[in-house]
Prior knowledge:
Layout: H1 6-18, H2 20-25, H3 31-56, H4 65-87
Amino acid sequence: xxxxxxxxxxxxxxxxxxxxxxxxxxxxxxxxxxxxxxxxxxxxxxxxxxxxxxxxxxxxxxxxxxxxxxxxxxxxxxxxxxxxxxxxxxxxxxxxxxxx
Length: 100
């Protein structure tokens, strides 16, 4: 049983904080495996989306190493943000009982 990658660790913390009831339903003995798989899935989707974005952003003129590195980093951050928002959504807003 492997430890979760950084995305899996982030997902586990997200579930513990924002989805505590769902988190509690995962048997403790299966949590490491569950979040390892989820982390791998997130990583695969981030990589795939980064590649898609890079294909769309291919500059017409050759760019230097530093510019290409910066572009790919920016695209990876965009992909990460999109995938995490989809796979680790913020909890639904609860209604304010005071009615404000």
